[in-house]
Amino acid sequence: MRRPSDSRRDGDGSRTGIIGRVKREGAIFLTAGILALGVTGCGPSKEAKELRLAGIEALEQGDCGTALEKLESALESGKGAGKDFRIDTMQYIAEAQYRSGDYKAAAGTLGDLVSLDGDRAEFWYLKAAAEACDSDYEQALADLNTAGKKDKKLSKLTTPGAEDAILLTAKALAEGGEADTAMELLDRFEDKAAEETARDFRVTRSFVFEKRGEWAKAAETLESVLRDYGEDEAIRKEYNFALSRKEESEG
Predict the structure, then answer these.
(1) What distance, in Å, lies between the first and last C-alpha atoms of the chain?
(2) What Cα–Cα distance (Å) separates residue 84 from each residue in 13, 142, 182?
(3) CB-count burial class (<10 Å; 0-12, 13-18, 19+) for 187
């Protein structure tokens, strides 16, 4: 199933990019801090390293198909390279799967990563994000809970992928008809958000209000974002839309 739509009005693109960091959903895993790891063990072969590099370059250029082909070949070629190389390459594979819209495959790859290193909270967060986009809400919420238990930085919500996973899960829940659960999720984590991403939580909250048909609250929330964070064309359009629906409902 496709991920939650960024726009009910695809023609004008007014929904696109409205949710701050989440507007970069296509690159969530990279922006969440997936970086090359130091490689230990025997070390990858020259072929494996070249394939992996070619895959990363293709991914950066938006060619997810080529990226997957190269990265999976790198994984196969680097079987004896050690755990770190495998983990690092699999992260990029998950990124390519996610960006190509194959959220189920991305969740599966991240599940394999959890099997390899289940103590890393970011893997659980990113797995939850992929599951949420695949409408597997129950598992996404379960994995968010697991991530929270393993996250030593939960009080400040600074672990890579944490905020993205929470916001994506909330958005997906609301899109899938579980707006009340989405609001509970936001209520649970919002006070932990860093100052620079508090805006994202607020805008996501307005989206959930819309899905609940609470247009006055949605408009009020978006108005506060514009007031506190400055003018933003996409948010202004969404505010005007929510305001018009509020007026219609009251008329």
Answers:
(1) 36
(2) 40, 27, 35
(3) exposed
CA–CA distance, 237 with 224 (Å, rounded to integer) = 14
pTM score: 0.76
Q: Is the dihedral of CA 4, 8, 13, 19 positive or negative?
A: negative
Phi, psi of 206 (to 5 degrees): -65, -35
With both helix axes pointing from N to C terminus, report the angle between 103-116 and 83-99 in degrees, rounded to the nearest 10: 160
Distance CA 87, CA 90 (A): 5
Distance CA 169, CA 11 (A): 25
Q: How far does Cα 193 stand from its chain's mean position?
A: 15
Of 169, 184, 98, 102, the C-alpha closest to 138 is 169
Q: 105 is written with which tokens?
A: 């495959």
Tokens of 93: 């594979």
Tell me how far apart the alpha carbons of residues 234 and 15 are, in angstroms, rounded to a whole number: 7
DSSP H or E stretch at residue 226: helix 215-229
Mean pLDDT, contiguous 10-residue spans, the chain (251 residues): 32 31 44 42 81 95 95 89 89 94 96 93 92 91 91 82 88 90 92 83 96 96 95 95 92 67
C-alpha–C-alpha distance, residues 138 and 131, integer Å: 9
Question: 249: number of CA atoms within 13 Å, CB side?
Answer: 13
